[in-house]
Structure formats: C-alpha cells, structure tokens
Design goal:
- The structure holds 2 protein chains of 2 kinds.
- By secondary structure, chain A is mostly helical.
- Chain A has a domain of 41 residues: Glu-tRNAGln amidotransferase C subunit, N-terminal domain (Histone, subunit A, Orthogonal Bundle), CATH 1.10.20.
- Helix content of chain A is 31%, strand content 4%.
- Chain A is built from 3 helices and 2 strands.
- Chain A has a two-stranded antiparallel ribbon.
- In chain A, a hairpin with a 2-residue loop joins β1 and β2.
- Chain B is of the alpha/beta class.
- Helix content of chain B is 38%, strand content 13%.
- Chain B is built from 16 helices and 11 strands.
- In chain B, strands 1-3-2-4-6-5-10-11-9-7-8 form an 11-stranded mixed beta sheet, sandwiched between helices.
- The longest helix of chain B has 22 residues.
- The termini of chain B are close together.
- In chain B, 62% of the residues are buried.
- Classes of the chains: A mainly alpha, B alpha/beta.
- The interface between A and B is large, with 52 and 76 residues.
- Chain A: It catalyses: L-glutamyl-tRNA(Gln) + L-glutamine + ATP + H2O = L-glutaminyl-tRNA(Gln) + L-glutamate + ADP + phosphate + H(+); L-aspartyl-tRNA(Asn) + L-glutamine + ATP + H2O = L-asparaginyl-tRNA(Asn) + L-glutamate + ADP + phosphate + 2 H(+).
- Chain A: Keywords: ATP-binding, Ligase, Nucleotide-binding, Protein biosynthesis.
- Chain A: Heterotrimer of A, B and C subunits.
Chain lengths: 97, 486
C-alpha cells in the first residue's frame, strides 16, 4: 500500500511533528520507499508463529520490585533542565480558556 | 608514547609506577587537542574535570580494576553535570542530573572520563553524519578524501583508532558498535541483550539497544566489559547472571570449537575483498584447531526489513518524551497552544533521519496497520531467533564479515535510506535475536582500509567470542595504523 499526502499529514500529527506543506512530497516518497521495501515480509509464512516482543534471550521474565517509594524530593534536579519554570512547576502555554 | 598503550599495557605501567593517571590523561588530552579539530570525535571536553579525576585516582589507596584508565564516552550515556546531547539539537543543552549505571560503574572501578563522543543523532545511522555536531571523520581517510567512521558509534571507534583514547563506551542497536569498529580497524563487542544495564543510556529501540566497549585489542574489550556488565535493579531487562572473567577467556584455545558459516551471508555481489578476508578468517580458525561447519539461517534476508519496522516503532514511542516541556529544546510561536509547542519543538529539534524513523514508527503502530507491519515483524523476529537456536545445535559460534564494504566517503553516501540501511545486513540479526557479537580487525583492503570479521555466539556466551576473537586477532596480527594518529 502506498501513503497519500493526507496520510503523511495524519501520521505527522499523531507523532506531533510539524511538517510544512512543501515537505510533504519528499517525505511521502521516502516513506513509501521504506514501506515498499518492508512489505517483503508479507510474503513470509508466519502462520502459528508467536510474536517476539522483547530482547531477552529465552524470553526471560521480568522481575517485580517491592512496591515502595524509592525516590523523590528532588524538585530542583527535576526542574534543572526545564525550558520554562514557574515556581515548582513546568511552564506551558495556556491550555484552558 | 603513552597514547600507544593498550588498556592492559596502561594498567601494567600504572601498577609499576612507570606512569600515573595524570600523565596518561594529559597525554590523551594533548592528542585530542591536536587531532580533534580534524576528526570531530569529541563533542564535549572537560579537561579540568578529567585531570581532577586523574589526581583522585592517583591518590586512591584501594585500586579499582580500571584505576587511572582514561576512557571516552559515547554522548548517549547520561553523565551527571556533563552535557549529554545524543547528537541531537533537541538535547543540545541537556545536563543530566544523574549518571548512567555503566558510567557510574566505570567511575567506581577507577576509570577517568576524557569527554563525550560524537554519534549519529539518537544512535540512528551508520555513518556518524546525522549528528547535530557535524560528522566525525574516519582517521583512515586518505589524503583529502573524507571517509565515514561508520555509525552510530562512529566517534567511539575513530577515537580508539586515532589513539585519542585506549577504550571507549558505545552502544549497538543494529550494528552500531560492530560496523564502526570494522570501518576504523578496532575491536568492539555487542554483548547479549541484558548483559549490561541500559539505565541512563538515552533510549533508541529498547528491545534492541545494548551497550558495549571498543578498544584496540580483544582483551581490552574483555576487561572493559567485565566492569560494565552485571544485574541492575534499575533496568528490569538486565539479566541476573554471573559475570565471568572475560579476559581469561581470551587465552582459551579454540581447539574443537565448531564455527558455523551461514550460507545466506554469502550475499550476491559480496565484494571479493570481503569474501577473501572471510575465507582467510575461517582458515585461521581451522589452523587453530576449530572445525568449520556449514549452517543455514534461512530468514536472514528478511532481517533488515524486520529491523526497520521494530526499531522505528520503538523509537517513535521512546522519542515521544521530547516534547519541549520538561527538558530539551522548546520552540513556540506567539499565541501557540500546547500542541503547536510540541509540534514546533520536535520539528526544530529532530534531524531528517530521526523524523523519518519517528514517522515510520508512528505509522506501523497506528490503528489498522499494527498487525500488517508491527505484529508481522515481531513474528519474523521470532523466526530469526529460531534460526539461531537451530544453528547452535551444530555449531558453537558463527563467523561472518562485519560489513559488506570497507569505509566509504562522506560524499559517496547513498541518498536513498533503504540503500544506506544495507550497511547493517550482517550485524542486525544479532540485535533481533538478542545474541552477542564481536567485531575484530582482520585485514586491509586494496586501498589500505581496515576490514573486520564478526563472530556471533549463544546468549551469555561472550567467553566463546573472546576466545575465538583473540585467536583471530593473533592470526591476523593487525598492526596497521590510520593516517591520522596521535
């Protein structure tokens, strides 16, 4: 399948990436090139194959830790790289009218 | 020359009092000052901090396993109080308030950081040229032709080759340690997934990312890996298995070892030089007593396509955190809402390749396409792993070329992303299967550029790789040096 310009815009919106109108044709061609290439996988018979999600060999099970507070109280560290700070909060544009 | 010392050599010289940590650090800082303007390997240097750490090391009574050894760190490892950029504009001013587990362990072992090394943006690339800091140049570049060092850990390999560090920290998601190691004529290992903690390493594709060392000898890699490895409660995927003395394995004989040769890796149109060095490697291992076994890894030809679904999918999710709100670049227009802020900050902060992978990843995970792409790729991934599991029934390790070509010129790069992705054709299977792989310099091309061989092994059997890698190293006796060298 091949992506049309509208789909490229929709995916960019989903990814919260601003894409200018004049960038669409280039991106569309690149993405279609990649998708056309990965479509080869469709030809492989994977009937009954369990999908593999993780990287751990042998599918090692992930351990649980005790449910207790292990950190916190580091407001200054958390805010140290904030592009905009208001008191002990991250500043953002107004979101409610 | 102190910059010529291997890690083993430097540890001996420090032990005997022939040199000290400050002298070693100073020698490397001088070399960096002289060569870095041409190579662009280090993107952040902190000489005072380095020398302070070296002085502390010299004063320390209780000696760590890497006491006084200077190391360069890929700028993907978070370092407390030292800018960490992932090669991206979006993290251009990011100063982590914490230290990655790997770098904390190295520090605890007495190692001294020389600075942070360039990389492809967010470790996405095979040339080190997608970095916001500009490309790193391969020290093997002849005359005025600029060759790429490989990537994404291109500068980690270039720095070791040019003697700007005896060892470096790197990461490998689809070949990012093994391919640049081969391009720069150094050794590098991607350990088994889970061998090394990923905590504090900026994430690209979490189920594939794994940190590993680069150095000029296989044994130096073994020494570094031992200090990096081990279970970490802060990374739930880090394996709770004992860490062996990897260096001891370097002296182990390969007599009786069964070395698999996968038919599918003999690609149509494989460069005769690469084929020759591969055959030579097999001959060397045979002479050392190993047995050569033909094997089949039937799903190899689908590994790259599988990778370019799985990795972008994970990347699109991992990189969602860069939103211009809590840290990193913020770009906002007058009267913009929150969504505009996200979209503008991300568009301004990410480079072309990162944007491309985020879009592909978002698409393959989106409603209606998830099954056709992402789930299908996960099934292929299971088949690729099964190929290896079946191969281990008849062999103990697998020998392949590390890369399909030697290093190429910066301006000869294919403009088509799919052609560029073919660089990882021999390395990407190990990440998908979670198995370890080592790259060892094995010879020179007709042009005088390094060529590398890769050895793959069973999960958590890095010792086999060190034994076979050291055997190859002894036979190859690779002593050529790049043109740009300290």
């Amino acid at each position: 399948m091949s992506l049309d310009a509208e789909t490229v815009k929709r995916v960019a919106r989903l990814a919260r990436l601003r894409v200018e109108e004049n960038e669409i044709p280039g991106l569309q061609a690149e993405l279609n090139g990649i998708l056309g290439w990965v479509e080869q996988l469709g030809a492989v018979d994977t009937e009954g194959v369990e999908p593999l999600a993780g990287g751990n060999p042998g599918g090692a099970s992930l351990p649980w830790r005790e449910d207790r507070v292990t950190g916190g109280g580091v407001v200054e560290k958390v805010l140290a790289n904030a592009p905009d700070r208001e008191g002990d909060y991250f500043g953002v544009p107004k979101v409610v009218e | 020359m102190l910059t010529e010392l291997t890690i083993v050599g430097a540890l001996k010289a420090l032990e005997s009092g022939e040199t000290n940590a400050v002298e070693l650090a100073e020698a490397h800082l001088r070399a960096i000052e002289a060569l870095n303007p041409r190579l662009n390997a280090y993107v952040t240097l902190h000489a005072e901090r380095t020398l302070d750490a070296a002085r502390e090391s010299d004063a320390r009574k209780e000696r760590g396993a890497l006491e006084g050894i200077p190391l360069g760190l890929k700028d993907l490892f978070c370092t407390e109080g030292v800018r960490t950029t992932a090669g991206s504009k979006i993290l251009g001013d990011f100063v982590p308030p914490y230290e990655s587990t790997v770098t904390a362990k190295l520090k605890a072992a007495g190692a001294v950081s020389l600075g942070k090394l360039n990389l492809d943006e967010f470790a996405m690339g095979s040339t080190n040229s997608s970095s916001a800091h500009g490309p790193t140049i391969n020290p093997w570049s002849p005359g005025n032709r600029k060759l790429v060092p490989g990537g994404s850990s291109g500068a980690s390999a270039a720095a070791v080759a040019a003697r700007l560090a005896p060892g470096t920290m790197a990461t490998d998601t689809g070949g990012s340690i093994r391919q640049p190691a081969a391009f720069c004529g150094v050794a590098g290992i991607k350990p088994t997934y889970g061998r090394v903690s990923r905590w504090g390493i900026i994430a690209y594709a979490s189920s594939l990312d794994q940190a590993g060392p680069m150095a000029r000898t296989v044994e130096d890699c073994a020494i570094l890996l031992r200090e990096m490895a081990g279970h970490d409660a802060k990374d739930s995927t880090s394996a709770d298995v004992p860490v062996p003395d990897f260096a001891a394995a370097c002296g182990r004989s390969v007599k009786g070892m069964r070395i698999g040769v996968p038919a599918e890796y003999r690609l149509e149109g494989l460069s005769p030089e690469i084929a020759r060095v591969w055959d030579q490697g097999l001959e060397w291992l045979k002479e050392a007593g190993a047995q050569i076994v033909p094997i089949s890894l039937p799903h190899t030809k689908h590994a790259l396509a599988t990778y370019y679904i799985v990795a972008p999918a994970e990347a699109s999710s991992n990189l969602a955190r860069y939103d211009g709100v809590r840290y990193g670049l913020r770009v906002a227009g007058q009267g913009d809402g929150l969504n505009d802020l996200y979209e503008r900050s991300r568009a301004a902060g990410f480079g072309a390749e990162v944007r491309r992978r985020i879009l592909i990843g978002t698409y393959v995970l989106s409603a209606g396409y998830y099954e056709a792409y992402y789930l299908k790729a996960q099934k292929l991934r299971a088949l690729i792993r099964r190929d290896f599991e079946q191969a281990w029934e008849s062999c103990d390790a697998i020998l392949t070329p590390a890369t399909p070509t030697a290093a190429f010129a910066l301006d000869d790069q294919p403009s088509d992303p799919v052609t560029m992705y073919l660089n990882d054709v021999f390395t990407v299977t190990a990440n998908l299967a979670g198995i370890p792989g080592i790259s060892v310099p094995a010879g020179l091309s007709a042009e005088g550029l390094p060529l590398g061989l890769q050895i793959l092994g069973r999960p958590f059997e890095e010792e086999t790789l060190f034994a076979a890698g050291a055997a190859l190293e002894r036979a190859a006796n690779f002593s050529a040096k790049p043109g740009m060298v300290a």
